[in-house]
Design a protein that fits this description.
Layout lengths: L11 E3 L3 E8 L2 H13 L11 H13 L10 E9 H7 L6 E5 L10 E3 L8 E3 L6 E3 L3 H27 L4 H4 L8 E8 L1 H11 L13 H17 L1 H9 L6
Parallel strand pairs: 1-5
Antiparallel strand pairs: 2-3, 3-8, 4-8, 6-7
Helix pairs in contact: 1-2, 2-8, 6-7, 7-8
Length: about 250
């Protein structure tokens, strides 16, 4: 009998990222009650919902004048699946974020790798910090797909060879590339999420443009859609005030 790799050990290739909102206590009311304690003290919870227009105005005022702390009394936990190079960038966001990522020491890493699809612009123009990306040629697209897949397969085979020889996972994983998918829980609040979105998304309403890598922006866009559903007034005020975190 010959040894054939199990199906789940055959490399697979993905061009998407996924974001699932797994847990939350986040609403516009959380901002209002925190802000109104300034003026109505312990009674602030009772003030909620009394005057929707005033509430909207208060959230907008807090955002505009960068009174940031009322936007911290909420919590969102996301399960994110993305390539390791995205997580390297993601974890630079230190303040108001908690992370737990799957371990390459305690479990065998699955062979799921990132290969961009045709919508991913491949060619970079312009100066550092202000890049512009343009479509690649068909030849470049084919090259990227072929070279990435070959190289991922080779790296994963080397990983498997070492594991089969009894080498520890934490040693063998050195050969795996940053295009390998990982997963993590990331917990934040609206203020830390806005800071992240201001830096990691491009948007026509942004007062301070940013030039993020497309793949972390894809994660940001999915998180933003979940957050906008939970806190529509806060999200609208963020956009109306140039997408600068308060
Ligand atoms: C387009 C882009 C390109 C980038 N390129 C590079 C790169 O080439 N190389 C690289 O190393 N990084 C790069 N980064 C990462 C960047 O430098 C930040 O580490 C990352 O964006 C997180 O931002 P932050 O520190 O504001 O966030 P957080 O760590 O969440 O901090 C939030 C805020 O808290 C305050 N704060 C946090 N820590 C401190 C501190 N120690 N002292 C004082 N104030 C603090 C600051 O006001 C900060 O803005 C890039 C980021 C972007 C968006």
């Amino acid at each position: 009998m010959t040894d054939t790799p199990a199906d789940d050990l055959k490399p697979s290739f993905r061009s998407d990222v996924t974001v699932e909102l797994v847990k939350h206590t986040a609403s516009d009311a959380d901002v209002l009650f925190a802000a109104r304690v300034s003026t109505v003290g312990e009674q602030s919870l009772e003030e909620l919902g009394k005057d929707p227009e005033r509430s909207k105005g208060l959230i907008n005022y807090l955002m505009r004048d960068r009174h940031g702390s009322p936007f911290e009394h909420n919590s969102m936990t996301f399960l994110i699946s993305a390539p390791i190079f995205v997580f390297r960038e993601f974890m630079r966001h230190r303040v108001g974020w908690s992370y737990n990522e799957e371990s390459g020491r305690y479990r065998e890493l699955e062979p799921v790798f990132y290969v961009p699809d045709a919508s991913r612009k491949l060619v970079q123009e312009g100066r550092p910090g202000k890049y512009r990306f343009v479509e690649g040629t068909q030849g470049q697209q084919e090259l990227v797909g072929r070279v990435m897949e070959d190289s991922y397969r080779q790296a994963y085979e080397a990983y498997q060879e070492m594991l089969a020889a009894g080498v520890a996972r934490e040693v063998a994983r050195s050969v795996l590339p940053v295009g390998l998918f990982s997963s993590m829980y990331a917990t934040c609040n609206a203020r830390s999420l806005m800071h992240f979105l201001g830096l990691r998304t491009q948007h026509e309403l942004a007062k301070v443009p940013s030039f993020p890598q497309r793949e972390i922006e894809m994660v940001g866009e999915l998180m933003e859609a979940e957050w906008a559903r939970l806190m529509p007034l806060t999200h609208a005020a963020f956009n109306a005030n140039g997408r600068v975190a308060p």
